[in-house]
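Researcher: Structure prediction, please.
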Amino acid sequence: MRLERMLVSLKRAPCKPHTTRAVTVPWGVGRDAVGRLRAVTNVSNRRLRGVRLMCAGEGLFSQSLPVSLDPGETLRVLYQQTEEMRDDGVLVLRWFEPDGGEMLWSVPLC
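Model: Predicted structure follows.
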């Protein structure tokens, strides 16, 4: 009886309209001869603010404080790869668009 009440209340809950917008990813990636990610370049025609790189997966990662990148500017990616990282290491880029919107994009390290 209690489960039925919960299901009825869930069915009546109002749904908010979907407001997510699709955007073109403003990044180009540079890889070395064996396919490891080594750099990201702002390939858009706009300045990207608060650019920050984060590593998801096993391994060590080094990066400076958030930076702004003008069109054509490149940010080098420095990390030490571990054996465990070979399968699931991901670089997550976080930045702010000119309109203030926060964006996230992930790309495999290898």
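Model: Residues 5-10 have pLDDT under 50 and may be disordered.
Researcher: Thanks, that helps.
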